[in-house]
Design brief:
- The chain is mainly alpha-helical.
- The protein has helices at about 1-15, 20-25, 35-50, 75-90, 100-105, 110-115, 120-155, 160-180, 180-190, 200-210, 230-235, 240-245, 260-270, 290-295, 305-330, 335-345, 345-375, 390-405, 415-420, 425-455, 460-485.
- It starts with a helix and ends with a helix.
């Protein structure tokens, strides 16, 4: 598939990648546009894992990944690098590139600036950021309680309007949690080198209970073609908090019974083309048994509608409980975190925050979503397919990066962004250039992917995926440059 795409795209570039001259003729270089080379190199990197650092370019593109793809020969590597450099000579931009940032960061003056970063000012900044974490975790709990209350009101008298209120409450609660996602990575960075690894493991376990995706919808409730599937229809499973917790990941990680995305499915249903969203009537109480149900020995409480009415608030209550446990875990480790910060230098603290940001980008956006998308795993790579709100969740995650960069301050009123600007103005400019471009790219990509899944049709989203991967890799590379000083 990927080779076919490249072959097709290469025709418009005047390049025949099935021709041996593609590998050996430098004359072919001038025919490549930077955009084509950019797409090609990212696919190479993601599909093979083979990477080589290439000098950055002045056309706003950045390629740090080269590799062997299908039957490409090693000689392709310098040719591709040269192609990008050649093509970009006449298309310079004012925005600093990674080459500029890298040379700036490796200068003696910059290295000196890194070590002049005050431990006290950096520690104050991180301490104030931790206060923002306190607020963020409290807000996730508040929104989860609001969701619980909205569900309770809806179940008293199910209506279309009531269902819409439940959906709005879920969206707000979920986005609030995603905006706090970076806090978990900061926590892990602060606790990972401690002798006690239990806090780190507990944080991961709680996140699995709160926000695991993708979920297996048929494990929860009915799906197309299987009207009596899932916990809702299994009368052998009692619906209470202990039993539902026991069902979570019972045989497989995808067999989720708790968390935001189980609630999402219970609220929206499959929401696929031809079926639409779950009707509020799914939550109307069933008061009488049919003759067939009587003969089967069923009780009214065992009917699917009534079990579903029990399951929805139970899962919502478990969610609130788990968020409260996450807050308790954070609070219980504050003294250990303070001691760790006391032992660290200013540059080490900067590296810790950079590491947390880079790890979140890698784990949440690249490994869990964009890399699988490039391998055509569409359904398993979309975080919120039932509510069709993946782009909102992803942008909320990126909001967490803006918060740590621009909202936390030290006693002088300086932000992390301003502190990094002391190392290099080009670093900050380049980082936020790629950051803003990443947000725009992802906001456009996920709705397009969702349409592709709904229509079960081939769409040309592959190169949009590649573009988003590239921009996020740029962010990681820029953060990595600082951490290596």
């Amino acid at each position: 598939m990927f080779r076919d795409k490249l072959l097709e795209n290469s025709k418009y570039e005047g390049v025949d990648i099935s021709d041996d001259s593609f590998y050996s003729s430098s004359a072919m270089v001038s025919k490549w546009s930077p955009h084509f080379a950019l797409q090609l190199l990212t696919v190479i990197n993601v599909k093979t894992g083979y990477s080589v650092v290439v000098p950055s370019i002045n056309c706003g593109c950045n390629m740090s990944a080269l590799g062997q793809f299908f039957r490409y020969k090693p000689l392709l590597l310098p040719l591709v690098a040269a192609a990008i450099l050649f093509a970009c000579d006449s298309d310079e931009r004012d925005t600093p590139t990674d080459e500029t940032v890298s040379s700036e960061l490796n200068s003696p003056a910059i290295n000196s600036a890194v070590y002049q970063i005050s431990k006290e000012s950096t520690q104050e900044l991180i301490t104030n950021y931790l206060h923002l974490v306190d607020f963020g975790l409290a807000e996730t709990i508040s929104q989860a309680i609001d969701l619980e209350e909205t569900i309770s009101a809806f179940l008293l008298s199910p209506t279309v309007a009531g269902m819409e209120k439940v959906r709005d409450a879920w969206l707000l609660s979920h986005n609030t949690y995603e905006a706090a996602e970076l806090h978990r990575y900061v926590f892990k960075s602060l606790t990972k080198s401690a002798q006690d690894s239990v806090p780190d493991l507990l944080m991961d376990q709680l996140d699995y209970q709160i926000d695991h995706w993708p979920v297996l919808p048929g494990y929860i409730d009915y799906v197309e073609g299987y009207p009596e599937s899932g916990v809702v229809s299994d009368i052998n499973v009692s619906i209470d908090k202990d039993n539902i917790r026991e069902q979570h990941g019972y045989f497989d990680l995808a067999e989720a019974a708790t968390g935001y995305h189980v609630l999402e499915f219970l609220i929206w249903g499959e929401n696929i083309s031809g079926i639409g969203m779950r009707s509020f009537t799914d939550y109307e109480a069933a008061l009488e048994l049919t003759q067939e149900q009587i003969e089967a020995g069923l009780e009214v409480s065992q009917l699917s509608k009534n079990r579903r009415r029990l399951l929805l608030p139970v899962v919502a209550e478990i969610l609130t409980d788990d968020l409260q446990e996450m807050q308790k875990l954070w609070t219980a480790n504050k003294s250990m975190i303070a001691n760790r910060l006391e032992e660290m230098s200013g540059p080490a603290m900067v590296n810790l925050l950079n590491e947390a940001i880079a790890n979140m980008i890698t784990d949440e956006l690249l490994v869990k979503s964009l890399y699988p998308l490039l391998n055509n795993d569409l359904a398993g790579s979309i975080q919120s397919p039932y509510s069709r709100s993946t782009q909102n969740a992803v942008l909320a995650q990126l909001t967490g990066i803006e918060q740590i960069m621009r909202e936390a301050t030290n006693s002088d009123g300086k932000t992390f962004e301003e502190l990094l600007a002391r190392i290099s103005d080009d670093f900050v400019t380049s980082f936020f250039f790629n950051f803003d471009a990443s947000k725009e790219c992802l906001a456009l990509l996920y709705p397009a992917i969702q349409r592709q899944v709904e229509l079960d049709a081939a769409m040309n989203t592959e190169f949009g995926i590649v573009e988003c991967i590239n921009l996020l890799n740029n962010l990681e590379n820029i953060l990595g440059e600082v951490s290596q000083l």
